[in-house]
Amino acid sequence: MNLNFPIFELPPEAEKLREQVRDFVREETGSGKWQRRGDFATFHLPGFSERLGSRGWLGMTWPAQYGGHEKSMLERLVVTEELIAANAPIAAHWISDRQSGPLLLRYGTEEQRQRFLPEIAAGRCFFSIGMSEPDSGSDLASVRTRATRTDGGWLLNGRKVWTSFAHVNHYAIVLARTGDAGESRHGGLSQFIVDLRGKDLTIRPIINMAGGHEFNEVVFEDTFVPSDLIVGEPGNGWDQVTSELAYERSGPERYLSCIRLAEATVRCAGKNPAPAVRETIGRLVARLISLRTMSIAVAAQLQNGEMPNLEAALIKDLGNAFEREQVQLIQAIQGDIESPDQEFLDAMTEASVYYPSWALRGGTREILRGIVARGLGIR
Amino acid sequence: MPDKKLHPVMQADALIADAARRAFGDQAKAYFEKATDDVAQNKALREYALREIADLGFCDALESPDNASAWPDAAALIRAQAYSGLPVDMVHILVGQDTAAAIAREAGTYEAAPVPAAVERDLPAGSALFALGRCLQLGSAMEAAIDLSLQYVQDRKQFGRALSAFQAIQHSLAIAAEDLAAATASTDLALSALVTGGQSARFVHLLRSAAVVNAGAVTRVYEVTHLVHGAIGFTSEYALHHHTLDMLQWRNDVQTLLGSEAGCARLLGDQAVAHGGVWAGVTGLMGNPAS
C-alpha cells in the first residue's frame, strides 16, 4: 500500500491569518450583513465575495500580474477552512476561485487570463461548472453537448444539468464534444467559456428536495461562442478537466459541510454535557483532526508542485462518509442535548435533508472508491 | 504560483527505514519457517532474532524514551517490526527498555485485558509513549493485513475471474485502506507533536485522538481483510492471523494505557467544549505550538 500523507505544520503566519479571518467573520455577522446558515455551496452573496476580494482572499495563490496575491496553498487553505467552518456565503465565487481561475491560469490564453483572472480575484466575476448532462453524470466522457465550428467561433448544441447558480453567475465552463471520442472515449472534448447572460441560451431552475434553487438546466441551441473563448487546445478537454481534481477533492469543503450542526450541538449541550454527548463531540473532533491532517498534506503537496489525485479522492470519500455519520451520530444523542434551540433544529433539518448532495458533488462514492482501488493496484 | 517549497515536520531516515524493513522481514520469515508448537523453542528463536536485530544497532535507536528527536527513526523501526509480524516487541525494547517483555509474547496469540476509564490527568509515567508505540504498531499490522489481502484477491479466482475483478471487493478494500490512511495520519500527527514539543498536553490530546481513529480503523480492517480472504484467513497456517491477533492485542493495549476508546473521546469532547466549539477545538488542538 502506498498512500502518502506526510505531516506539515501550518506556518505561524498562517495562524495569524486565521485570526484575521475570524475577526472579519465576526465583523460581518456582528453588523448583520449575514447570519450563518446553509452549507458552503448554497449561500450566494456577491457583495461578500467582493469584500473578500478587496481583502486579498480570492485568487490568493495566483501571480500578482493577474490580480493574485502570491500566497501559499496553506494560506489559502486557512482562509477557505475558516470561511467554510463559519458557513460564510462563499458560493458566488467558490467555483471561479477554486477551479475556473486555476484552469485559466494553466490552460488559458494570455488574453483570457488578463480578462478574467483579475475580475475573479476581485470577487466580481462568478463561474459555474458545465459538465453534467441529463445522460452524463459519473460517466463524464459520454457528454453529448456538441460544438461545431462556424464563422469566428463555435456553435453549441446540447443540455447541461445541475449547473449551480447558472441563473446568477456570469460564465460557465462548458465541456463539449468537438471531435471523435476515440477508443479511450477521452478524445475530442473541449472546454468553452460560455456567457450565461447571453441571449441564445435558456436557463431553467431545477428545485431540489429541500425546496432550494441552486441547480439549473442550461440549454444550448446554436449558442455562439467566439473562438477566443475556447480554453486550451481543441480536443484536450479531458486532460484539462481531470487535471484539477486534486484541488477539487481534498479541501475542507469535503468534511465541513455540516459543521454548523456540530457547533450547535456544543452550544446547546449545557455546562455539564451528558457523557454520550461528550463522547460524540470527541469522536467528531478525532475524525476531523485526521481529515484535516490529510487535507493539509495534500495542500502542501500541491504547493510543492505534486499532483496527489489518489490521496485527494481518498480524502473526499472519507470526508463525505464522516459528514453522513456526523448527522447520524448527533441524531442518536439528540435527546441528551440539554437545550436544543431553534438554530440547532434548523441545522438538523438542513443537514438531514441536504446530506445526499454532499457526497454527490465532486464525484460519487463509487467513482472515488474506484480511484482508490486503482491506486491500490487492484483495478 | 510562488516558489515556496514546504518540508514535512519530521521524516525518518530513509536508509534506516529501508534497512529495518528488510531486516525484520528476513527475521520474520526465518522465525515463522522454524516456529513449532514448542513454546520454549519458539522463545529461543525469538531471542535469536532479537540478537540479530540488536546487532544492527536497532535496539539502541532511542537512547532514552524522552529523546524526542530520535523518535522518527524509532517509529520506523517499530513499524518495520509490526509490519513483519515478528513477535519481538520493539515498543518494549525502545520505550520500556525491557528485553524480557519484548520476547514474552508468542506469535498468534491474543488475550483481552480489563480496560480502565480514561483519566484526564496523571497518565502513569511512560504510558503515553508506550501507547504511541502501540498506535504505530497498529497501523503497520493493518497495513500488512491489507497488503496480504491485495495480493490474495489478485491470486484467488472464483466464477472464472480474480476476486479483485469484482467491484464489491475493490470497494471493500478501498474503504479499509482509507480508514488506515486516516489512522496513520492521526498517529503521525501525535508523533510530530512529540517530536516538536515533547510530552506536552497537546501531544496527549492528539494521542487520544489517534487512539479513537485507530480503534475504528482496526474494526474495519479486521472485517474486510478476513471477509475477502474467506476461510483461509481464519487458519493458523496462513499469515493473516498473526496480523489480526497483533491488531486486537495492540488495540486493547492502547486502551489499557490511555483509557477506553469512549473515554478518550469524552476527554476530547471536553476539550472542544472548553474551546467553545468543535472547529475551535480542532484548530486549537492541532494548532502550531510555535504561534
Descriptive keywords:
heterodimer, A: 379 residues, alpha+beta, 4-stranded antiparallel beta sheet, 8 strands, B: mainly alpha
Please give a structural write-up.
The complex is a heterodimer of chains A (379) and B (291). Helix content of chain A is 46%, strand content 14%. The longest helix of chain A is centred in the last third of the chain and has 29 residues, at 275-303. In chain A, the strands form 2 sheets. Chain A has a 4-stranded mixed beta sheet, covered by helices on one side. In chain A, helix 1 packs parallel to helix 3 (73-85) and helix 4 (91-107) runs antiparallel to helix 5 (110-121). Chain A has 379 residues and is of the alpha+beta class. Chain A has 12 helices and 8 strands. Chain B is an all-alpha fold and 291 residues long. Chain B contains 11 helices and 2 strands, in the order ααααααββααααα. Chain B has helices spanning 14-34, 39-55, 71-84, 90-94, 99-102, 127-155, 167-197, 201-229, 240-258, 261-275, 278-286, and strands spanning 157-158, 161-162. A two-stranded antiparallel sheet of chain B has the order 1-2. In chain B, helix 6 runs antiparallel to helix 7 (167-197). The longest helix of chain B is centred in the middle third of the chain and has 31 residues, at 167-197. Chain B is globular, with a radius of gyration of 20 Å. The two termini of chain B are 25 Å apart. In chain B, 53% of the residues are buried. The model of chain B has no long low-confidence stretch (mean pLDDT 94). At the A-B interface, helix 1, helix 3, helix 8, helix 9 and helix 10 of A face helix 6, helix 7, helix 8, helix 10 and helix 11 of B.
